[in-house]
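Question thread 4412

I'm putting together a teaching handout and wanted feedback from people who do this every day. The idea is simple: show students a protein as raw sequence, then show them the structure tokens that encode its fold, then repeat with a second protein so they can compare. Below is the first pair exactly as I plan to print it.
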Amino acid sequence: MALADGRLPVLPLGADKRPLGNCPDCADLACGGRPNMKTPGPCVCPWPCHGWAAATTNPSVLASRQWGMAWRRARAIGYHPGGAGVTVVDLDNADAVAWARTALPPTTQVETTRGEHWIYSGTVRSVNSVRPGVDVKSLMSYARWLGPGSGTMADVPAAVYALVEEKPAARPSAPAVTVPAPAGGGQCPHRSPVYLERGIAMAEQRIIGAESGVHNTVYRTFLAVLSAHGRCGCLTETHIGRLFAAAQAKGESARHCTTAWANATTALGM
């Protein structure tokens, strides 16, 4: 709760350092999801239940019955670096630490069981194995909380940006919604078109109004929109474009928007 009060989105980790399912239905993979992965779902829960997307600062969620079982089983606390606005350079051994001391500027440093976490202010895409023994954890990833560390936090250096960009990222095509053919002449069969318009407008405002945890807010908003309209065929590319535009206005890249949309459709089994 103290970490969440400090705007650090947290989640429970097991003894193997992997995220736990945060409700009874998702314990021990009973939901068919992948709580050990960095992407959520698939899962029938009404909110992201495991992985980086479940990290939250909401005290009501953290203390809820749904999360209670996971916290009782937890052996460590994880957090979403990107949601906290930071990047963790995970140095997994002595050689990696020695490299960082010559190649990277000093910043906040936290000792780990095998090396160190160097924490910088700012976010980048997360990439594993950018060089031997070095992972970069920020957006759409999680790290283990090992204490506040020591040293003054510096901004993400050019050297880290360079390491991340050297690793090619898959470039997904424009988002497409694969749903059954629309019923009722293309109108939403269970609500009026006015309901859809109001829902899209509210979703835009929810994203634009996010003061922190923008990436989580984007994902959760996409999930809510797809839950209501993803299967009835009334969503159009224009609607999706409006949501993406709102997310990009808050600093999200087009690639991250596409990934969040894909994760949401997967979580809903679509």
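The second pair follows. I'd like the answer to focus on this one:
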Amino acid sequence: MSAPFRTALELAAAGIPVLPLRKGKVPFANCRACLYTSCGGRPNMKTPGPCTCPAPCHGWAAATTETGVITSPAWATAWQGAGAVAYHPAGAGLTVLDLDNDEAITWAQASLPRTVVVATTRGQHWLYRGTMPSANGVRPGVDIKSRMAYARWISPGPGAPPGLLARAAGLPDAVRALVVKQRPAARPVIAAPAPAGGGQCPHRAPAYLERGIAMAEQRITDARSAVHATVYGAFLAVLSRHGRCGCLTDGHVTRLFAAAQARGETARHCTDAWTNARAKLGV
């Protein structure tokens, strides 16, 4: 039984969801269907789950407290090659303040309430009860790991200290404010132009087109996996029904692009998907 495997079982027993890491802090690619979607590949995704992929999933979404999953054949090879154990802080109701150097630790000691401290290779992890968005570089040498993120467990002893979750202090407003202060302004939504039209109009009323756009927006917003494919499929559906008559406006396209970018798609991905859908339909 490897050391990471023993640590994982003890952390899971303490209510902390765990996953194996390769050497170099990289998750195992358990589920290729969700490597770059809302199930763990992208930290900027706004909807964390629950994951519907075959267990175990990828990245932070693979973290679990279920002994049956941790000891399953699906993870047996991963534990044999694991370089470390990681955990999903928000899954345990925690936020981790990752302090990478002495200066960051000194700042935290002077500015924040004391809480449970876990040693790391370069500094300390301060654990607080409560969850929040994860963010990197909120201060020099300071990262925040909570929702949709994982943190490595490096500490003297194999597992979680007794009563760790109960002993953690409540998440202070000063930590929450770090993410609010560094949050960038919203990016402008860039949309491709709508087709010029010229075909026969199938719309019986303006509400018909509005309903089609709204359904496409909702389809994109509800995507939990395969976001690229979902966006392309929604664009294709809209263009196949509304792309030839000229009723589809730039405003409609902007709404679709905004929905896709809210799910983590870049403007370039949106433009490529729109262009490919138009090319497929010849509009």
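Top answer:
Good format. For the second protein you could add a caption like this: The chain has ten helices and nine strands. The first helix runs from residue 3 to 13.
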